[in-house]
């Protein structure tokens, strides 16, 4: 069903709420002297799905890592669910509870079983009783189609399976927002699809998603908005149809021609 | 295409599956193992034969010296005349001193009891077949030292045995176990502090580690034993054993900190990031994610430090504490046992070996048990 929607190229944006869930205003970040993010303004609405693309080093990963404060910004403001990210550790933890994140390298905890990976945060952060946390974990592991691997260790799974466990692990915290930092870039080609399928299903649950990826098919299929970044700035953003078929800036055109040429 | 037509070998389609088969007998079993490991090449064969020849030269005479031509029972070194092999006579006669030092004989049951309680406390910490690991580990550090002090030193009606009467294996074990128990947690805290983002904490930890690491252990012990009393006010005179012990713990912690830091650095940054992204705070992510993995990586280094610590306790004999080594040395200064140095030192060495070898085997077992097959 979702595939049909993708082919039609019509993601329904009309039902989208106009309640902002993330507000970024005049945000700047430097690594030492290097100006990685410059004057970023971005408002994300509840339930919105945004794909961020751009050449490597353009600051797209850094941008989403600022949203859960894995990176600190030096100027401007980031407000997530009404909480402004400052040095206040309590507030940062509160934001992180509501924001799930997926990494390129999966970052599962290798010393814990798949099930323990999923129950750890609910038990220790949300204080969920163990039995309840395990039930929840099995529910999400079933949704990512690997309930039978629950008692194995991450080292015994394939890359695609590990990334699906990572999705289940994040969902167990019942986040309001999910950040994806190139979730399929470290995967073999035959495993990319199984992860993307899970992400497409997740998109159908009205989850707010920010996805850094080069999977343009995925962008067309599920994104409400595509953002193109270069040299730490947002160069162009638009609905997928407009973005892919009528790009305005020369840099966008060059980038699209490079990644779509094969 | 024309290539393939000319050369039909280059085109191939498999039509039958090759069934699984066992390896050839010559590579499996004892014979296979010996061929692969002992006689795989002419050089290897020569080395194997040479090794067997050396073993033949050394082992049988040593065995005869220790067990066949030896004497176990006797009253003094006069009985050793005419004995070709080892003259163990002083070991059974002085056994009590090797184990307990000058601890009064009627009170020695207290040492035995302390040792048994210690082993019972250690069991759940070392093995997961016995429940209650967390509690046992906490009690080992915070509760057991008090129990041991009451039992060994005496309180609540138990006759007081001052520490200068402690000696032999008892003293060695007290020193080694206290140093091992405290150096690991302190070392972990120092290692975390050294990697802290807070400059004050980081500087203090670096200064502490570098200071203790750059001083020889003997100097630390001399300072604790002779220099410290010069600076403390009259009347305030901490126990000599305690002073040496604290110096020893500080010294060991500095080394432990660097071992643990090695483990922390070996972990990919993504582990911390994943823990943070899930909302775990610093201490929880250290406790649940980072330290279990980092400590597992450095088990060989930690146990290496433990073994070194255990043997370094022999240095306390320099400041006059009667540890196992000093007992072994002083036993043979008695005119009654003169000339039996070999036997006395070999016996002490054997005791050291038993403890160190056990630690080494335990660490190997632990490494295998904790291996979850993940390669990062």
Describe the structure.
The complex is a heterodimer of chains A (262) and B (376). Chain A is of the alpha/beta class and 262 residues long. Helices cover 39% and strands 24% of the residues of chain A. Chain A is built from ten helices and ten strands. Chain A has helices spanning 2-8, 60-67, 89-98, 114-124, 130-143, 159-171, 189-203, 216-222, 240-245, 250-260, and strands at 20-31, 34-45, 49-53, 75-80, 83-84, 99-102, 177-181, 208-212, 225-230, 233-238. In chain A, the strands form two sheets. A six-stranded mixed β-sheet of chain A has the order 6-7-8-3-9-10, sandwiched between helices. In chain A, strands 2-1-4-5 form a four-stranded antiparallel β-sheet, covered by helices on one side. The longest helix of chain A has 15 residues, at 189-203. The two termini of chain A are 27 Å apart. Among the domains of chain B are: 31-58, no CATH class; 90-103 and 161-370, MetI-like fold (Orthogonal Bundle), CATH 1.10.3720.10. Chain B contains 16 helices and no strands. Chain B is flat, with a radius of gyration of 28 Å. The interface between A and B is medium-sized, with 27 and 24 residues.
Label the structural class of chain B: mainly alpha
What name is given to the CATH topology of the domain at 90-103 and 161-370 in chain B? MetI-like fold
**How much beta of chain A, percentage-wise?**
15-25%
- Which structural class matches the secondary elements of chain A? alpha/beta
For the biggest sheet of chain A, the summary is: 6 strands, mixed
Mean pLDDT of chain B: 83
Q: What separation lies between the terminal Cα atoms of chain B? A: 45 Å
| Sheet of most strands of chain B | none
Tally the helices of chain A: what do you get? 10
Question: What's the shape of chain A?
Answer: globular
List unreliable stretches of 5+ residues of chain B.
none
* N-to-C order of helices and strands of chain B: HHHHHHHHHHHHHHHH
**What topology, given as strand order, has the largest sheet of chain A?**
6-7-8-3-9-10
Please state the average pLDDT score of chain A. Answer: 88
Please give the number of β-strands of chain B. 0
Rg measurement of chain B, Å: 28 Å
CATH class of the domain at 90-103 and 161-370 in chain B: Mainly Alpha
Binned strand content of chain B: under 5%
Low-confidence stretches of chain A: 1-10
Helix amount of chain A: 25-40%
Estimate the helix proportion of chain B, in percent.
55-70%
């Amino acid at each position: 069903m979702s595939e049909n929607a993708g082919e039609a190229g019509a993601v329904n944006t009309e039902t989208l709420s106009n309640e902002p869930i993330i507000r970024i205003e005049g945000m700047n970040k430097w690594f030492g002297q290097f100006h990685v993010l410059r004057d970023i303004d971005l408002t994300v609405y509840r339930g919105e799905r945004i794909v961020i693309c751009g050449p490597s080093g353009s600051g797209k990963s850094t941008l989403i890592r600022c949203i859960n404060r894995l990176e600190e910004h030096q100027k401007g403001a980031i407000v997530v669910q009404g909480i402004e990210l400052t040095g206040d550790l309590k507030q940062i933890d509160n934001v992180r509870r509501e924001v799930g994140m997926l990494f390129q390298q999966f970052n599962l905890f290798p010393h814990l079983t798949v099930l323990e990976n999923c129950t750890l945060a609910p038990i220790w952060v949300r204080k969920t009783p163990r039995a309840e946390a395990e039930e929840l974990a099995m529910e999400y592991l079933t949704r990512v189609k690997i309930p039978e691997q629950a008692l194995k260790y991450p080292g015994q799974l394939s890359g695609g399976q590990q990334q699906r466990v990572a999705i289940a692990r994040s969902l167990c915290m019942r986040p309001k927002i999910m950040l994806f930092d190139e979730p399929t870039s470290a995967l073999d080609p035959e495993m990319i699809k199984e992860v993307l399928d899970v992400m497409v299903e997740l998109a159908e649950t009205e989850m707010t998603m920010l996805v850094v990826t080069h999977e343009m098919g995925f962008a067309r299929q599920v994104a409400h908005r595509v953002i193109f970044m270069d040299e730490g700035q947002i160069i162009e953003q638009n609905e997928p149809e407009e973005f892919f078929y009528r790009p305005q800036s020369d840099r966008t055109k060059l980038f699209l021609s490079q990644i779509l040429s094969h | 295409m024309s290539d393939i037509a000319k050369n039909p070998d280059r085109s191939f389609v498999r039509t039958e599956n090759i069934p699984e088969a066992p390896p050839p007998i010559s590579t499996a079993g004892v014979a296979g193992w010996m061929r692969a490991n002992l006689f795989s090449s002419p050089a290897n064969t020569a080395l194997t034969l040479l090794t067997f020849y050396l073993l033949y030269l050394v082992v049988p005479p040593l065995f005869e010296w220790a067990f066949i031509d030896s004497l176990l029972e006797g009253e003094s070194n006069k009985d050793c005349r005419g004995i070709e092999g080892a003259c163990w006579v002083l070991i059974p006669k002085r056994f009590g001193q090797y184990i307990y030092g000058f601890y009064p004989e009627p009170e020695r049951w207290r040492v035995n009891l302390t040792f048994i309680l210690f082993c019972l406390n250690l069991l759940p910490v070392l093995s997961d077949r016995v429940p209650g690991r967390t509690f046992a580990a906490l009690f080992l550090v915070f509760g057991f030292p008090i129990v041991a002090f009451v039992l060994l030193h005496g309180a609540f009606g138990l006759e007081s045995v001052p520490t200068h009467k402690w000696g032999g294996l008892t003293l060695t074990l007290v020193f080694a176990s206290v140093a091992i128990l405290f150096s690991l947690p302190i070392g972990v805290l120092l290692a975390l502090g050294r990697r802290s983002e807070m400059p004050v904490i980081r500087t203090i930890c670096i200064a502490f580690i570098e200071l203790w690491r750059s001083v020889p252990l003997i100097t630390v012990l001399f300072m604790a034993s002779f220099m410290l009393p010069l600076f403390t006010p009259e009347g305030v005179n901490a126990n000599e054993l305690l002073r040496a012990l604290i110096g020893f713990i500080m010294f060991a912690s500095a080394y432990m900190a660097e071992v643990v830091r090695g483990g922390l650095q070996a972990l990919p940054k993504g582990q911390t990031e994943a823990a943070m992204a899930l909302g775990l705070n610093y201490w929880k992510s250290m406790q649940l994610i980072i330290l279990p993995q980092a400590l597992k990586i450095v088990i060989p280094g930690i146990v290496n430090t433990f073994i070194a610590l255990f043997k370094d306790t022999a240095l306390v004999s320099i400041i006059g504490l009667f540890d196992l080594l000093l007992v072994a040395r002083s036993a043979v200064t008695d005119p009654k046992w003169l000339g039996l140095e070999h036997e006395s030192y070999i016996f002490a060495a054997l005791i050291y070996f038993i403890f160190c070898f056990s630690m080494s085997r335990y660490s190997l077992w632990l490494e295998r048990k904790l291996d979850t097959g993940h390669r990062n």
